User: Fold this.
Amino acid sequence: MADRDGTGAGGAGSGPGDAAPSAPAPAGDPPSVPAAPGARREEAEQDAESPVSEPEPGASADADMELLRALLSRTLGLGGDRAEPVLDELSLAGVGRFIKSDRCKNIVCMVGAGISTSAGIPDFRTPGTGLYSNLQSYNLPYPEAIFEIGFFKKHPEPFFALARELYPGQFKPTVCHYFMRLLQDKGLLLRCYTQNIDTLERVAGLDPELLVEAHGTFFTSHCLRASCRQSYSLAWMRERIFSSLVPKCEKCQGLVKPDIVFFGENLPSRFFALLESDFGKVDLLLIMGTSLQVQPFASLISRVPTNTPRLLINKEKTGQSDPLMSLMGFGGMDFDSDKAYRDVAWLGDCDSGCLALAELLGWKEELEELVRREHAAIDAKGGDRDGGSPQKPQGDKDKDGGSPRKSLGDEGKAQSDPTKSLGSKAKAEKDPKKPQGGDKDKAENDPEKSRGGQ
Assistant:
């Protein structure tokens, strides 16, 4: 969501022409005594002789310039010595060796919509297939209005119609989701910060304690009336959405909204509560499927220690240094300059990147088997993919989610062969940094606004 920084106002009643009264002298201070005329003359002569009485012309400007140089050197890496390399090689192989070393114990993942597109969930801005290209039937003033809280309160129908297209329970987690599951199972995952609202991290088996759903989730819903705030389960909301009903609170008849973050709403408190401790002790930051354009999520990359490696797995490079943002304290990533020392970009789709990294770690067969086993289990349950186990709300009996309409752009189909991408997608990983998919992969379409307009 957009930044919501408040600005402080001046004191009440103060203004350009208001002068504050002088404070009374503290009790016990001796009263000031006027100096004798001779003393005043002597003081004036001493001031006139002082070598620092007046700065030389241009001295102030030189000092300001030196201060600016120091600031630029510290924030932009201009001047000074090159930082000591953190990895033995700025490549996926170098990251793999770092993960296998005893220096890597805590990995934080930052993920966006790009990790879920292979599950059949459309992104936002791809021409022709993105969500914003398929909203004409909803008669919106502009596409983003469907995810604005003010518009939703007045016109909730378009959002709930779209929600039927994207509702959890229709999609399976991807290879990328299960790679994070492996990190968890091996005791390496400190936390996963996701911008996605599709609940696929939960479906893949990530422990909710290791998950921060930065832009909220469909998993729970609440009445919007501040005096009520009644909570509702995923099953309750799903029943109403697929019955084409606008969900109303059973207590007060107020409007009920899934706990996803709309434009105009604050991020969950859990996001702010954990980021300080997590990003202070992370050994490796793994960024996948996000264009790092939505704040404050995007600024997290600058919160890691300066000796923490950062790996981006994405269709295009992103998060690189912007001079203005750097001056504000949001240092970007540096993949290509002669001062690069810790940032690595692997260009391609997220599943292929995770397979390539898993192969370097010796985990590829384990990852492929995990995907096959978990997808088979999902199919055996008849499509129970809502992430409700083991935290499923009571009364969650509608496991198949009704009969949702065909998803936008015909992208809502679950993978018919859960292992189709396994192996074949990783064949090109002999050069792990080689881009995959040619020109069509270059449209990384604002993926961090993952399925909720965040």
User: Anything to note?
Assistant: Strands lie at 107-111, 189-194, 211-213, 216-223, 231-233, 256-260, 284-288, 310-314, 343-347. Residues 26 and 32 are 12 Å apart (CA to CA).
